[in-house]
Write a structure and sequence with these properties.
Elements: H1 22-32, H2 36-49, H3 54-62, H4 67-87, H5 104-119, H6 123-136
Helix pairs in contact: 1-2, 2-3, 3-4, 3-5, 4-5, 5-6
Length: 146
């Protein structure tokens, strides 16, 4: 009968994204510490200088001025995240857990995309993203989601 399925006692494989450079993390932290009226522009400047920085896109989505701006930033973060996951060995399945700081930008973007998709009436996208989050990390949502 066909090909056997090989199960491991530890479950599906787990992918952890590569660590962002400290200077990027520091630049984002400084941008997020700006006064509320300056924060979005400061985060946008970090993202413009480093367009592959997943947490930058996720935070820009959180700071978006309206649902469509948020949706666009979260979607870019999500798609850039899929590219980074694949580059780190992910093959379309397996865990991408929140407990690894390196994965949080992708998961924030995916969560934001799910939330905003629901707000704009894109229910199928909202549900697909919510399901994907649970596949990535069965303990979703984390207690420290911000």
């Amino acid at each position: 009968m066909g090909n056997p399925v090989h199960l491991t006692p530890t479950g599906p494989p787990e992918t952890v994204l590569d660590t962002e450079p400290a200077e990027l993390r520091d630049a984002l932290a400084a941008a997020l510490d700006r006064p509320a009226g300056e924060r979005r522009a400061a985060v946008a400047a970090v993202v413009a200088a480093h367009p592959r920085f997943l947490d930058g896109w996720a935070r820009l989505g959180q700071l978006g001025r309206d649902d469509i701006e948020q949706y666009a930033a979260f979607r870019v973060g999500y798609h850039r995240g899929l590219d980074r996951l694949r580059a780190n060995g992910w093959r379309g399945s397996g865990y991408v857990r929140w407990r690894h700081e390196e994965n949080r930008g992708f998961l924030r973007a995916l969560h934001g995309l799910s939330t905003v998709a629901g707000r704009i009436g894109e229910v199928d996208e909202e549900e697909r993203c919510a399901f994907f989050l649970k596949q990535c990390d069965p303990t979703w949502p984390p207690a420290d989601l911000d």
